[in-house]
Design brief:
The structure is a homodimer. Chain A is α/β, with parallel strands linked by helices and about 475 residues long. Helix content of chain A is about 40%, strand content about 20%. In chain A, about 60% of the residues are buried.
Amino acid sequence: MISPDNCIRNGDDLHYFFEPSSVAVIGSLRMDSGLAFRAISNMLHFGYKGKIYPVNPGYEEVLGLSAYQSVEAVAEPIDQAIVITPPKTVPGIIDQCGNKGVKAVVIVSENFAEIGADGIVLQQHVTEIARSKGIRIVGPNTIGLINSANGFITAPYFIAYDRLPKGNVSYCSQTGFVGPTAQPLFDRGYPINKTCDVGNKCDVNEVDLLNYLANDSTTSAVALHLEDIKDGRAFISAARKLVAKKPLIVMKAGRTLAGGRASASHTGSLAGNDIICDAAFRQAGAIRVNTWQEFWDVPRVFGTQQLPKGNRVGIVTHTGGAGVVATDAAVEAGLVVTNFTDSTLKKLSAFAPRLATNPVDLGPVLSTTDNPFMVQEESVAIAMEDDNVDCVAAATYGGIEGIMEPIVQMFTRLKQRCNKPMAVWIYGMKLSAIEETVRELQKQNIPAYIEFETAVKALSVAAHYAQMRKEM
Amino acid sequence: MISPDNCIRNGDDLHYFFEPSSVAVIGSLRMDSGLAFRAISNMLHFGYKGKIYPVNPGYEEVLGLSAYQSVEAVAEPIDQAIVITPPKTVPGIIDQCGNKGVKAVVIVSENFAEIGADGIVLQQHVTEIARSKGIRIVGPNTIGLINSANGFITAPYFIAYDRLPKGNVSYCSQTGFVGPTAQPLFDRGYPINKTCDVGNKCDVNEVDLLNYLANDSTTSAVALHLEDIKDGRAFISAARKLVAKKPLIVMKAGRTLAGGRASASHTGSLAGNDIICDAAFRQAGAIRVNTWQEFWDVPRVFGTQQLPKGNRVGIVTHTGGAGVVATDAAVEAGLVVTNFTDSTLKKLSAFAPRLATNPVDLGPVLSTTDNPFMVQEESVAIAMEDDNVDCVAAATYGGIEGIMEPIVQMFTRLKQRCNKPMAVWIYGMKLSAIEETVRELQKQNIPAYIEFETAVKALSVAAHYAQMRKEM
């Protein structure tokens, strides 16, 4: 392994990875199945407007673009190269990229450090060439990057959605599992700003990403999946700088001994002792989650609404049973299910005496009222406006076709009316309706969830982060 | 509250609740919106073949069925009555049901013990009438029951799916939130055998259900959501008898003080001290889960495959990152991510040396082989057949249209070939494809999951239950 200190550090700017004006894609251009073909096709599909240079000596043209024998055959400058070729060809290609003045290279190719001794030697060789030429590398063994703002995407596989979801969270990982083919990024409406799979981390690693994303004005929260930390001190320092500006959610895999061993065999990295990692996260102000669902969903709560001023939650639900589950989840995550003020209790009582408690269970009232949306909207507003409430978790029935529009309108009005953070849980019988409503709410910057527990967990992370910011 | 000892106990047979030959439905028959109309409509829709007697003095006919002035006006015998009328009318109706010889009544009506003093008195009154007439009651304040085998369903709301999912797990709860309108029972393909919301538990409670389901040959696992336990000793005794035959998965809500208070306000029950409940569950051999997702998904692993002989898991995945996450989840849930035997390592090496480790990461091989399904099928089989392996968690890419059939065929063959339990995780980019594949696998009695962590958790619960059975 090459330690990060041995790698080039051209400042902390990964600009050319996420915002290249021009990109060479080197690899198979075979129609449909070629990986370079597919990467180019994805970029065109998602609206990348920079120059694209397909590179493969066997082609003259692909997807309406001229193809080139090599990067050096391109006359115009090239910011970034995506390399998807057999491993033994990579050193020569990096060398050519250096001669051409390429600034950033994503090495998608596999079979480097993750396969053992031979791969380690090859990876080190590639890294040394890059360093000597002033090139930064993401990878090898990576699915690469997405920037949802400019449609730039390096994934070399077929992607079955029409457009990228757009948002304000950047998701970084040490696995291609965060990629657009492995995850329902669109269907779940994740608020994607950028993604990056660091792969084997021969150069660019989590520290570089933290440094870059700390200063990236369009990223308002960072979710980071890690299997190892290359340099603990550098990580803590970079993370603290980022956390002073925006939250950092970390999912550290390889928590267990067996998990650590599994990690070594697919990325060639050694998972650190989990207790030490945990201490580093605390010191860094990073907030840890332990499941994929939380990794993706918790950050939704950030960036598009203000931070909670404290940890007191109001819960408004349609079903008492779910209210109890949400209350348990809230308390276990460190929130206080607050007592409403007398004024709030009075207002809620005006609808029905039974509503005057936290959690509010609207169920019995909604099933008899003529205007359930009004009762719900007013009840959520009353809870949000309570002086004892810092944030609100609201359930809403969205599990059937035809009611999405009033739901989205209701929460959009509530967001405008009440200046406190909320998390909305959509439940019901039709998954397609639930999922569409989650996406539409996300478009209105309203964090929505398919599990009440995750909605509540997200609010608790927001409260935790807000408290940490106060203490920094 | 009426303690269960004060209630009638006609043996432990809830036969007339789940398998009535005839049912009276008492309440509003208004076209489409009437709750009794809707309950009847649902029964017809889902294929219930028993006699249905709509009861409402304002109607002569509804949905092609003759309507009756009262239950007493029906000439034929009535096994069960579903009561969906204003609370103050319920005592009189129960009295009439008694005169008519009705055996079982589901009181859907709300506003009983859950609303406080007046409701408690009314509920007690109703219970006393029922007891004096030899009637068993489910409810009040309940969505009632489902029996997927005969299409019997009491839910009085519109249900937007064509057929009930069918399976071997009975789900019981103390909330309507397990109901077919609040949960995507069909879309998720939950293996529904029966469901029952016990509501305020004025008579039938968790103990009755455990007694009944222990002897119900079509139920091979029970998932039980509880907010309180009416009688700890009776619960432990009934649960132990059930657990000697089939697993009991318990989700106890109201774990926290605040959660317990919330519970009191919607069902009128007092959540017991959680430490005491936890001890009772251990003594009873019930296995506890703490989230809705686990409540629904963990039991899939039971009943259609044999129990694991030990706690050693083989993990076969398409993506190294997910393998690490699954390994962590396995170890944290008490499984051992076993070392494969030399013979297994040799067989896996024949595909590629990198595969010869647990977890097996097929990713790099699948992306280069001409026959990915064969490689996957053989790899999973090799892992399952390993003498050191008691169960297998297998990931498969199912997140795109058009590949469901080979996936289902592959796992169906694997199930026939290898006599060990497995749990399949479906991942990918299209939720609709993932969900459909989960349903189709479920139809083949292959437990499938949308989260790898839950698949692994389910196997751990199976191993835990198998161990407990050995010690009983």
